[in-house]
C-alpha cells in the first residue's frame, strides 16, 4: 500500500511516517518500480504501535526503546514495566507542575482588579526579578 493508504490504516499522518522513517524510528519502506513507498501490513502494525505510544505521551526516543523491546522476544517484562512506571512518574510530575501554575495564575487573576488603571499585578509579577520558586502574591498596599 502507498503512504496515504498506510497513513489512513494506521492513524499516523503521511508527514509523520516520513519523519519516523527519516529519523530511523521505522525502517525505510520498500519502493515500487516507480519509486513510491510501499508499506506492508507489518509496517502498518508498527505504525499503529507508535501511534498508541504517542497517544500515551511517550517521546520518540522512548518509543524507539519500546519498539526495540517489542521486537525482542527474549525481553523481560520488567524492562517494559520500568519504562511505563518512569513514564507515569513523569506524567504525575507534569500534572503537579501544571496544577501549581494554574494556582499561581488564579492568584494573579484574583489580585488584578481588571479596571481602567494601568497598574497590573499580573504584569508586575512577570517583570519581577524574584526567583520562580517564590510566586507568592503580595496584596497591593498604599493609596488605591
Nutshell version of this structure?
The protein is mostly helical and 144 residues long. 60% of the residues lie in helices and 3% in strands. The protein has helices at residues 3-10, 14-23, 41-55, 60-71, 77-111, 121-127, and strands at 30-31, 37-38.
What does this structure look like?
- It is found in: Cytoplasm.
- This is Cu(I)-responsive transcriptional regulator.
- Its main location: cytoplasm.
- Keywords: Cytoplasm, DNA-binding, Transcription, Transcription regulation.
- It comes from Paracoccus alcaliphilus.
- The chain is mainly α.
- The chain folds into two domains: about 80 residues, Multidrug-efflux Transporter Regulator, Chain: A, Domain 2 (Orthogonal Bundle); about 70 residues, no CATH class.
- Helices cover about 60% and strands about 5% of the residues.
- The chain contains six helices and two strands.
- A two-stranded antiparallel ribbon has the order 1-2.
- A hairpin with a 5-residue loop joins strand 1 and strand 2.
- Helix 1 crosses helix 3.
- The N and C termini lie far apart (about 70 Å).
- The C terminus is likely disordered.
Spell out the key features of this protein.
2 domains, copper ion binding, two-stranded antiparallel ribbon, 144 residues, 6 helices, mainly alpha, 60% helix
What's the domain count? 2
**CATH topology descriptor of the largest domain:** Multidrug-efflux Transporter Regulator, Chain: A, Domain 2
Strand order in the sheet with the most strands: 1-2
Helix content: 55-70%
Distance between the termini: 70 Å
Characterize the biggest β-sheet.
Answer: 2 strands, antiparallel
Q: What is the H-and-E element order?
A: HHEEHHHH
Shape: elongated
Helical/strand content category: mainly alpha
Q: Provide the CATH architecture of the largest domain.
A: Orthogonal Bundle
Q: pLDDT average, as an integer?
A: 89
GO cellular component, one term: cytoplasm
Keywords: Cytoplasm, DNA-binding, Transcription, Transcription regulation
GO molecular function, one term: DNA binding
Subcellular location: Cytoplasm
Amino acid at each position: 500500500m502507498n503512504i496515504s493508504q498506510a497513513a489512513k490504516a494506521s492513524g499516523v499522518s503521511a508527514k509523520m511516517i516520513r519523519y519516523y522513517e527519516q529519523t530511523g524510528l521505522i525502517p525505510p519502506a520498500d519502493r515500487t518500480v516507480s519509486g513510491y513507498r510501499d508499506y506492508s501490513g507489518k509496517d502498518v502494525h508498527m505504525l499503529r504501535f507508535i501511534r498508541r505510544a504517542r497517544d500515551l505521551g511517550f517521546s520518540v526516543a522512548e518509543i524507539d526503546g519500546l519498539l526495540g523491546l517489542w521486537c525482542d522476544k527474549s525481553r523481560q517484562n520488567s524492562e517494559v514495566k520500568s519504562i511505563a512506571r518512569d513514564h507515569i512518574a513523569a506524567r504525575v510530575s507534569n500534572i503537579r507542575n501544571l496544577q501549581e501554575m494554574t494556582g499561581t495564575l488564579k492568584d494573579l487573576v484574583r489580585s488584578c482588579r481588571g479596571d481602567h488603571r494601568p497598574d497590573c499585578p499580573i504584569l508586575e509579577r512577570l517583570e519581577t526579578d524574584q526567583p520562580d520558586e517564590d510566586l507568592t502574591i503580595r496584596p497591593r498596599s498604599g493609596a488605591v
